Amino acid sequence: MKKLLGLAIALTAVVTSVKLSLPRSTPEGSLSFSSVESSSTNRTYAPLKLPPFPSSGLNLFNSSAEVANYLETFHERKAFNWNPSYPIYIPAFDNQNKPYLRKHDRGQTTALMNGFKKYELGFWRDLPLDLSALHKSFPQTSLEQLANFNKQDILWDPKMAVFDKDDVLYTVVRIRTENPSLKHYVLMYSKDHGISWQSKILLSDANLPEWYDLERPYSPNPLFSSPAFLYYQKQGKAPGYETGFEYWQGTVGRLTLQTTSFNDKGELVVDAPVEISTTAQPIGYRSGSAVKVLRSGDKYFVTWLEATLDHKLEKNKTGRPVNTVPDKKGNPYSGIWVAEYDIKTRFLKKTEVLKTWPLNDSHNQPGIVRTSKGILHVIGGAHGAHFTHAFSLKPDSIDAWSAPQFTNTTNSGYSANFNIPGVPGGSQTYVSLVIDSKDQLHLAYRLWASDKSVFNAEYFGALAYQKADCDFSDQKNVSKTCRWNSPQILVYPNAPEYTHYYQVMTIDRKENLYLEYAQMRPYAPYFFKTPTGEMINTSPMLNSALLKSEDNGKSWFLVNDEDFEH
Fold first, then answer.
1. Is residue 10 classed exposed, middle or buried when 0-12, 13-18 and 19+ CB atoms within 10 A define those classes?
2. Are 403 and 419 in contact (CB under 8 A)?
3. What global pTM score does this model have?
4. Cβ-count burial of 113 within 10 angstroms (0-12 exposed, 13-18 middle, 19+ buried)?
5. What is the 3-state secondary structure (H, E, C) of 461-500?
6. Which of 32, 174, 322, 392 could make an S-S bridge to 488, C-beta 3.0–4.6 Å?
7. Are 390 and 366 in contact (CB under 8 A)?
């Protein structure tokens, strides 16, 4: 078996379990190594091939500044003469399709008051968060203390703007105050496009859930109302994972859903969290960042990765427990579950719909979207294995599901450890998923691939894209309902073997697709100790980039400022 390197990222319920079969294979195709060309001379189109690092001398720098200067040569700005004046982040769009991007200085954290940059009339406008609005929620803490205590992590937390159908803008901040025993999640919201702000405390706890995610648009449509939230709190480890494993392996915890709404007085009301699972795996946002909670009418639908607690781990030659490679039937696996919660009846039910591999690995985050007719699509992630896909057979219901299928059965030249034996394709990690108004699915992920004309190495990690057309006219012939095209490589890395992209995908009101990413590796020159002893820890945000497609995913290009006008 080929060895892959890992990266540490890291109630009332009616339970309905279903027997999961191994997904069917979609027809094989040929891997696409190019995008459709455009006549535009001002755009840099994918596939982007980053200049490769030299084979040595990558850990001889003496400071972070030297490293940052060196890295520019091997990333998009200098390599492709790309000069965006905006902060690279996943954009959100108001009802006029104006983009809002989180303001930052290319570091992993940003100042609390740094709100958003909005593009209109050819200029970027600053929309800072109003600290006085936060001060109303925390009157015992001064404005200076709020600013000093609360830099915001824009990498691991979802710090984008979110809009609802009334064009209210929302974003979440983590807050610490003068009281060290309490931490808080706070929802900031604006009813005038970021000019003025209000705040509402979502949760306050000494043991605040370590991960959160918020309801976000997954289609050209805005949210129905104020967003719902998911929270994850680690509880422990699955049996056999107590020692010798990373955080993202075998971690078990509590997943809760919190809904919000505006009352008749126009005040934001926060509901008590509802427990979804006590044996969930972590919900890391940057593991593809696909939406995990959505609303339809009075129902919320939540998807998550459940831990497998009853599998005895194998041991390698040294006696160390290791994860088990799946057999041809896809066993062992960890399940992707979906919950349906009715906010009026407060009735919760849930079911298992997909298998993921490897076992108990939180990289395998799922994503969920809803079609214009209420069909729910769920894709189960993987960590160097096959993504799986299923859809509901009834609108806005989790009671019946299609047979699962693989999204990629095209040979990429490399078969990763946890691929299903005998099935081509796979080698996928990190689900990014949106849907357009024609109910076409758009999927991005990291793809392990091998091409000796690119790198003379066993494998490399590419940023890839796929699309699926789904035909629900013949429900009896499920195999013909969704057809995935072959992967299209958008970005080739600057070095072979392990690569991470931290990618996030979205779609605007005019159905343009956007893909934010930051290609990097957990090695020199990104991470190492200098000869003088300084630890270099490069932020992925330093060299992040933004791609756009205006033709339904056929071609992609680096986004210049003026491209936000289309």
1. middle
2. no
3. 0.93
4. middle
5. EEEEEEEEEECCCCCCCHHHCEEECCCEEEEECCCCECCE
6. 32
7. no
